[in-house]
Design a protein that fits this description.
The protein is an alpha/beta fold and 478 residues long. The protein has a single domain, classed as TIM Barrel (Alpha-Beta Barrel), CATH 3.20.20. Bound molecules: 2-(hydroxymethyl)phenyl 6-O-phosphono-beta-D-glucopyranoside. The site of 2-(hydroxymethyl)phenyl 6-O-phosphono-beta-D-glucopyranoside has 17 residues, from loops. Keywords: Glycosidase, Hydrolase. This is 6-phospho-beta-glucosidase AscB. InterPro entries: GH, GH_1_N_CS, Glyco_hydro_1, Glyco_hydro_1_AS.
Length: 478
Amino acid sequence: MTDVKPFPKEFLWGGATAANQCEGAYNLDGRGLANVDLIPTGADRFAIIAGQKKMFTFKKGYFYPAAEAIDMYHHFKDDIALFGEMGFKTYRLSIAWTRIFPKGDELEPNEAGLQFYENLFKECHRYGIEPLVTITHFDCPMHLIREYGGWRSRKMLEFYERLCRTLFTRFKGLVKYWITFNEINMILHAPFMGAGLYFEAGENEEEVKYQAAHHELVASAIATKLAHEIDPQNKVGCMLAAGQYYPNTCNPADYWQAMQEDRSNYFFIDVQVRGEYPHYAEKQFERAGLHIVMTQEDLQLLKENTVDFVSFSYYSSRVASADPKAGEESQGNIFASLKNPYLKSSAWGWQIDPLGLRITLNAIWDRYQKPMFIVENGLGAIDKPDENGYVEDDYRIDYLREHIKAMNEAVNEDGVELLGYTTWGCIDLVSAGTGEMKKRYGFIYVDRDNEGKGTLKRFKKKSFTWYQKVIASNGTDL
Ligand code: P53
């Protein structure tokens, strides 16, 4: 396929994971308990994720998949060697806050936790892999949730700042790409998972969520400031669960609804890129009677410390209608969307839309003109390994190929600026939405099932050699 134009020379190909979905070892070497440890599989999962059902300790009768996950804590050397073999230029991972500060409000970090990540980053560099580090990926110490209510508390600014200062100082020279909060807009949809928020009956949930969001936005600005002060080489990004909304029909009311839905997500990035609250948000707070406490100093921090790049996850586009009775809801995703009849769906009902990626890249570029980074994209599917553990995952290759083509067009035909592409779950890991192992994204199969059984052995899938070739040809051999 020589007619395909290559990606920019420095394009960062790679894969992405999150600590709570792969590390396991939840109680080793001084690690404290986090919200993500206490999210079980099963029928109550969604209510817990949404902060509607309380799960502040392990309870009998539940299975908690993050506790062991794929035990990357003990396998990281072998796993990174496999990433190296695929030719990764970058590996996106997240820090488990509770390895560094087990309770969250200590003054001194836990050396064993820092050492673990130092070893991991050094291992990456052995293979020429640049770490891309998410500081918080759905991760909040339980102690901070019990004592302070998670991100609803302003005290979080101080704890997060200490975490960031510790990381930036210790890992100076080892890490230069940082993401402050994974899918920061997730706070609106999954507030316990996203921000450690649990709601008491009768409270104004909207107000709590936006107050907590304000704290995260200011914390992100503080982190950006610190990162730049500690090492001017550092690049800091925001991170959005992206996917453009389409209007269900050409009825202007549907277009207007789609625009409102997009704004509810872009709101966060508007603040992080432009450094101020957009007018539509101020008006929205006013109309809803939300009183969000912000200081002059907060506003100044936001203004002076905007991000260097905009990163996002993209799995699907979305559909909105002004008519509450219009059409069928698409399934299986935390984001509400109508079903799009022009698209096929994954086994979990996520609709597959490669052109939607090109549309989303262009929409974000038009809005911000900041370098972008696609830090999650991929297909969650059921894999059936043969007796040697080999999976012929042509469906995954097809999904990725089409999305890489769309991304290529956005870069080479439309001229958007894109730093890199990391596929989600480059090694099979626990699903954030459902807690299942069965929903697999990886190039590497991990022998573990939904109940936590399996040898944890790793096997290369067909997509492993395919992605290796994609990277070696800088995206021209698909
Ligand atoms: P899973 C939806 C629901 C939960 C998390 O999701 C999500 C999304 C997608 O917008 O966000 C990201 O595992 C998240 C990852 C997660 C991935 O999507 O439910 O950043 O942690 O694993 C895929 O299939």
